Amino acid sequence: MTRFTTFSDTKKKTFLALATLLLLQVGFSQKQHKVPPMNGNMPRIAQTAWRIFKLYKSGNAPAADNAADVLVFCRTNRFSYVPSTGIGPQGTFKVQGRLLVLTNDSDKKPAAYKMSWLPGQNILKLEEGGIIFEMEYNGETNCNG
After folding, report:
1. Max Cα separation, the chain?
2. pTM confidence score
3. Could you list the mean pLDDT of each consecutive 10-residue stretch along the chain, which spans 145 residues?
4. Where is the signal peptide (predicted)?
5. Of 3, 30, 48, 139, most Cβ neighbours within 10 A?
């Protein structure tokens, strides 16, 4: 004979309330991205590094987490894109209001990325030609070139 333990209505309600609170807490606990040094209402770009955690085309669902891709900006207005597979493009950068202009050393063609800062989420979004980068602040840099 199998014996089942039954809960009283009060215990059932208490259990369901606690389970619901736990699920709500887990559901609302999102990763909090670090806050970068700010230049007014936009993050400072020079001397910072940014982890690219989403890279996608406009109108498409964001790709999976790009955990190891990083954009590094030096105080000398040089940048390096460091993908998880090695070293990527390098060049110069210039901030013009809400535009971040990157000029690749190899082809010398500037690309003007529209910057958007999502303060509640601490995310920097770059958009250019239908390509969107979503990035989180990864820390200060001390590079000269």
Report:
1. 81
2. 0.73
3. 46 39 34 82 95 87 71 95 85 97 96 95 94 93 80
4. 1-31
5. 48
